[in-house]
Amino acid sequence: MPEKTFIIERYQNVLSDEERVTLVDALRTIRNKLHWKPGKDIVHLKKRQRMKHLCGTLADYEQVIYDIVRNVQNIVYLYDFMGTHYYAVRGFAADNEWLVIFGRGGLMETAFPPQNIDEYLERRGFVFLGRVEEILQWIKKANT
Amino acid sequence: MDKKSKHMMDFISEAIEHLDVSGFEAIEILDVRSRLASREPLLDEPDRARLEGLDRQLLQMADSLIGLISEVANLEEMRRRAHILPSHWWWYLDGIISGKRKVATG
Question: A40, A74, A71: which is closest to A58 by C-alpha?
């Protein structure tokens, strides 16, 4: 078995079959259409503008998020807080490295460019899962 | 003030004003405050005064900050994971709040 495949399957085993399906569903959903918590989209946008992370409209902000979650080479992480799973995709857009964090069903939690993304992920305990393209194949593999 | 310290102080100042997004962002304020702590000896008097002002704001906003963070993280676990120094009091706002409540209820 090639080493790379072994590593992917090892991380895959962090999640149960059901949890993997939930993750893939969330990833597919957010790649297709963003869902914000009620009224939160503008609140997030205003913060991004004030923090000078981007200037522009909500559509521009959402495009940044789409650019990150739709790039199949970007890395996906898992964050577990007392059994509630959040997923994160990191990637470059609008001159920054962003972290898009979302939950079950692809519900947006936040998308922001941490000051030091490696330190942020390490200190919070985010677990590396694999590239977007690899995660999306989990279900394909399971269905074959 | 050196550019990095100014950037960090600007970050904390703006982030405190926009707490209502996500605990994942609120917790970064504590990270940045810790990074700023290592630069404190480089700060001149006006900069120290500005930092003291930001720290006062952090204390005033402690309830909201801790409330938001506790939606997505266990602060005690975060302290342990990040090997937080006891001198970095902003990581212990949960204890400070609970101490204040105990004093208030006598």
Answer: A40
B21 → closest Cβ in A44, A114, A115: A44
CB neighbour list of residue A132: distance below 8 Å, 6 or more residues apart? A27, A69, A70, A71, A72, A73, A74, A75, A76, A89
Closest CA to A90 of A81, A102, A77: A77
pLDDT digits (tens, 9 = 90+) for A7-62: 445 565 789 999 999 999 999 999 999 999 999 999 999 999 999 999 899 999 99
Kindly report the pTM of this predicted structure: 0.90
DSSP string, A75-139: EEEEEEETTEEEEEEEEEETTEEEEEEE-GGGBEEEEE--TTHHHHHHHHT-EEEEEHHHHHHHH
**Residue A142: how many CB atoms within 10 A of its CB?**
12
Determine, for residues B21 and A43 on separate chains, whether the beta-carbon distance falls below 8 Å: yes
Query: Which DSSP symbol is given to B19?
Result: -
Q: Does B59 touch chain A (CB under 8 A)?
A: no
